């Protein structure tokens, strides 16, 4: 049976590069995206990943439909500025929903499928402010929500021992995206990291060599 890769956030700046790279590498792609443009060749479904029931139904549908999923690349996330004084509980909840729950819901729904099929890989996306307080202090909700992603990866790795299930966190520096260029017009864009380079790093993690790495935190910063 053809083993497939599930990619969330597939229509985002990083997502489109990752889908293209993994397709070229020969993987069949199941993409979660609300906009299917540019995702030709992937099986695309619009799912609100903050809705746990919707995620469970989606994963049940794709796994009972005969797809054998070997890896999940969970790219959904979002950013917010704000120091402690500006960050209320609602701001924290919003970032946790977007950066953590969207990954957690998929991890929880997909793990039984991995267990029943001899294993699988999770690739999560972290962020540097989660472990550098000098940056995190300016984006408190974002940093705290991304720090949960690292803890989730550790828990997956512990739970998955002996079951062939592993998790890695890829940590991009500043990605060269239109949104970042607009918000930081005076920055040196050449210091940033191209989405295609992060896609290469993710493709490596899914390669035979990458599959044998353990407890990986892969920092892809370029000079940013
Ligand atoms: N950009 C950077 O410099 C940078 C740096 C470090 C880490 N990261 C991380 O890298 C990842 C990708 O970043 P990016 O710049 O590619 O972000 P992006 O372009 O904003 O893409 C995020 C994607 O997530 C989707 N999404 C948002 N909420 C969703 C939900 N509730 N359910 C399902 N899908 C949802 C969006 O779909 P819609 O468009 O349909 O809403 C969008 O396609 C994120 O985890 C981000 O935190 C980014």
CATH architectural name: 3-Layer(aba) Sandwich
Count of extended strands: 7
Query: How far do the termini sit from each other?
Result: 41 Å
Q: Major beta sheet, specifics?
A: 7 strands, parallel
Q: How is the largest sheet built, in terms of strand order?
A: 3-2-1-4-5-6-7
Helices and strands, in order, run as: EHEEHEHEHHEHHHE
CATH class: Alpha Beta
The H-level CATH homologous superfamily, spelled out, is NAD(P)-binding Rossmann-like Domain
Ligand inventory reads: NADP nicotinamide-adenine-dinucleotide phosphate
- The radius of gyration over CA amounts to 17 Å
Question: Which word captures the global form?
Answer: globular
Explained architecture:
With 224 residues, the chain is α/β, with parallel strands linked by helices. Helix 1 (13-24) packs across helix 7 (195-206), helix 2 (52-64) runs parallel beside helix 3 and helix 3 (89-116) packs parallel to helix 5. Helices cover 44% and strands 17% of the residues. NADP nicotinamide-adenine-dinucleotide phosphate (NAP) binds at residues 9, 11-15, 32, 34-35, 48-50, 75-78, 98, 102, 125, 127, 172, 174-175, 177, 180.
What's the SSE blueprint?
Blueprint: E1 3-8, H1 13-24, E2 28-32, E3 43-45, H2 52-64, E4 68-74, H3 89-116, E5 120-125, H4 133-136, H5 140-159, E6 165-172, H6 178-183, H7 195-206, H8 208-211, E7 217-220
Parallel strand pairs: 1-2, 1-4, 2-3, 4-5, 5-6, 6-7
NADP nicotinamide-adenine-dinucleotide phosphate binds near residues 15 and 102.
